[in-house]
Amino acid sequence: MNINIVPLQTHGDERGSLVSLEETNNIPFAIKRVYYMYDTKKDTRRGFHAHKKLKQLVVALKGSCRFVLDNGIERVEVVLDNPAQGLLLDSLIWREMYDFSEDCVLMVLADSHYDESDYIRNYEEFAKLVGEI
Ligand code: TYD
User: Fold this and answer.
1) What does 23-91 look like in DSSP terms, one character per residue?
2) Does ligand 1 come within 6 angstroms of the Cβ of 114?
3) Ligand 1 pocket member 47 (CB < 6 A)
């Protein structure tokens, strides 16, 4: 399974680090929505869905968390712990997130507005759909 971790260019000097995200430049889609998760309680697992169309880029701005990614055939684990790296999540990838550090701030850039009808929240339904493609 192809895991797409995008290195984000860091403009660093003695003052610190700065990362700039520009749609269609270092982000391979038009950014329609940004959301972030923080204060995630210990032992929380979230996600448990795939998207029919949505593409996203996830950046751990602070702290760390783990992702399980599943394309219906293979499951892989990815640790996100670097604000200078983005994890590209294509459509039709089942994702679960867990092991959030107490300080974790997880930012997500998305190519569409929030649309509940784009979610597949049932794993059996997801596996059936990708099996048919
Ligand atoms: P939810 O889909 O449950 O998050 P996760 O899949 O990570 O467990 O989203 C939590 C709530 O936030 C839910 O009521 C929907 C809402 N929400 C929005 O209103 N806009 C958004 O962009 C997102 C991602 C969620």
Assistant:
1) BTTTBSS---EEEEE-SPPTT--EEEEEESS--EEEEEEES-EEEEEE-SS-EEEEEE--TTEEEEE-S
2) yes
3) yes
pTM exceeds cut of 0.90 = yes
**For the chain, domain boundaries:** 4-8+24-132
CATH class label, 4-8+24-132: mainly beta
Residue type, 100: F
Q: How far apart are CA 48 and CA 37, in angstroms?
A: 15
Give 46-85 pLDDT, tens digit per residue.
Answer: 999 999 999 999 999 999 999 999 999 999 999 999 999 9
Determine whether the shortest distance from the Cβ of 118 to ligand 1 is under 6 A: no
Known catalytic residues? 49
